[in-house]
Amino acid sequence: MSEERADYCWVNGKFVEWDRAVVHIKTHALHYGSGVFEGIRGYATEDGNILIFRLREHIDRLFYSAKVYKMDVPYSKQEICDAIIELIRRNNLHETVYIRPIVFRGYGPLGLNPLKVPVEAAIYVVPFGRYLGPEALEKGVRCMFSSWERISPRALPPEVKACGQYINSILAKLEAAERGFDEALLLDHRGFVAEGSGENLFAVKDEELITTPLYASILRGITRDTVITLAREELGVNVTERDITRAELYNMDEVFITGTAGEITPVVEIDNIPVGDGKPGPITRKLQKAFSEVTLGKNPKYEHWVTPVY
Predict the structure, then answer these.
(1) Cα–Cα distances in Å, from 194 out to 75, 83, 271?
(2) Fewest 10 Å CB contacts: which of 28, 44, 88, 251?
(3) What are the φ/ψ torsions at residue 176 (nearest 5 degrees)?
């Protein structure tokens, strides 16, 4: 993530200076990963505004995740949305930003039954560049299949964004980095393709767009949902959600990964095998263009997906 910082954060209903946004060492989430979070992006426009992309859907998912982990968020969805907008304003930001709201078990008794530990909430926002590097969107990335398996829904709920669950992603990402790849891909507990360490996965074969299904141990991605909608409604492309084998993925015409941070990133190589001709494909490019237009508020059909800050 970006190493940028801002002047203020929002912590438990109050705006505090960046360096004062701290927690006690006895915070439950520090020891057990007992928290849920979101990654949200705000896009800078030519007129100096910032458009937050699919803010409501992200906050809906935050509350969905919290419910799974039996955490009652001490604020309403609207209060969290309002706090995000006001935090950007207080920091006087007019560039593309990354927004991280988090809900977690705070200071209280340690142990594996945290129901008596208070639930806290915090938000930070920082200027944001390219998650996988400045050339990733243009030239694509090299991926490898990790030796680590994506968490099974019989062990943890993969569809939610929970703090502790991301150790699975960290292990896969570290393995890929150590071997000289940009990103890791993971198989699910059945041996089918799941997703990247922090992204959903799409592939193109004979002009059909294919993506792994929700039951393949994947996150219920908001960018994923956006891409499916744009492919069907703007490009007229047939979209199929189905299982994909590792060997089948090697033989796809195009592959790309999606997420709030990485947006729509082409995959040009998997396990040292070129994807298609080894360059980003035409459907990937069309989707990148359509996605950019929507996030910048240039497609009025989807103006309900963006929330202006100023």
Answers:
(1) 33, 34, 16
(2) 251
(3) -65, -45
Q: How does pLDDT run across 143-171, given as a tens digit for each residue?
A: 999 999 999 999 999 999 999 999 999 99
Predicted TM-score of the model (pTM): 0.96
The boundaries of every CATH 3.20.10.10 domain in the chain are 136-295
- The single-letter DSSP state of residue 245 is -
The separation between the first and the last C-alpha atoms of the chain, rounded to the nearest angstrom, is: 25
Q: Does domain 8-127 have CATH number 3.30.470.10?
A: yes
Q: Please report, as a single letter, which amino acid is at residue 18.
A: W
Mind telling me the catalytic residues? 161
Architecture in CATH for domain 136-295: Alpha-Beta Barrel (3.20)
Give the DSSP per-residue string, 2-37. Answer: -----SEEEETTEEEEGGG----TTBHHHHH--EEE
- pLDDT tens, residue by residue, 56-95: 999 999 999 999 999 999 999 999 999 999 999 999 999 9
